[in-house]
Amino acid sequence: MGFEYFGTNWLTDGFTFPSLSDYIKDTKERLRQPLTIPAYATAGEAERIKRFSQLTQDNPYLQRAGFAEVVRQGGEDWSDLRAIPYGEYPELYNVCVFASKILTGVSPIIFLYTAKTQGMLYNACALDYQDKVWIYLSDQLFQEHGMLKAEELCYLVGHELGHAQCHHTTIRSTADYGSDKEYSADRAGMIVCAKWMLTHISGCQPEYAARQAALYGAATLLKLETAMANGPNKTDWRTAMDYEKLRQDMDGVFDGAARLSISTGSHPHTRHRVMAMINFSQSQLFYRCLGLDPADYSGLCSDEHLQRMMAYQLTDQ
Fold this sequence. Notes:
By secondary structure, the protein is an alpha+beta fold. Helices cover 53% and strands 11% of the residues. A hairpin with a 2-residue loop joins strand 1 (2-5) and strand 2 (8-11).
């Protein structure tokens, strides 16, 4: 015996909705599950997520509280928040869906916002909570024609999804939160960028995609810095970035980097981030994250070597 409900046939014999108490119990159990650690996370990040995972098991609503706090903060920093359809920004839509499926396996809801504060003018954010993903981007990024190439947009969106996957949204509400979080998010951005090239460029080889992912990651950081320094709509993006010169600069990026102190703010020095991206692009871990067998490629650094370089960068410079 059954009946039609919005086109779906529901069996009436034995069919019941869960009680409120059952729903609360099931939700708490889901929130108590150990947090996932992305394969690309740095060693320090992995340990931080493990420690925070124990906190969420003891207090299952800690994740929810952190999520709610970010949404509240967004309301203070954003205005004119609107979900975008495919037809309005097809390239942005395709990149966001591609990035989210690569990193989370979930199709995202994509929003543009108008920034209320200077810090959010050239910025983005992603939230990953209970099998749902939201991506927020400043509309200023798309008001300046040609500012970001598709590969750079991949890096930017992947970077923000990396923050979400590494649980930075909630961890930052505790004392256990370090500036090295950016290195893990940069790795996520590079993975999406390289995957995009391997998927969308005919004949693209992994070694080329790896090198270019580091290049486009560095270019994105420098473009955002340039835009913030010049102000809105003051930069000619047709001539603002010399990619060949940037490649040459990256070849010498390690020279003199030791004179820079460790960043104690929310973001490390850009030069340090570029160094870390170069190291990651030449690692076995990066190739595994791309779904490739590192044994098929020569000259890649081991996980142990990559970890030692990262540890040195975080402690000695």
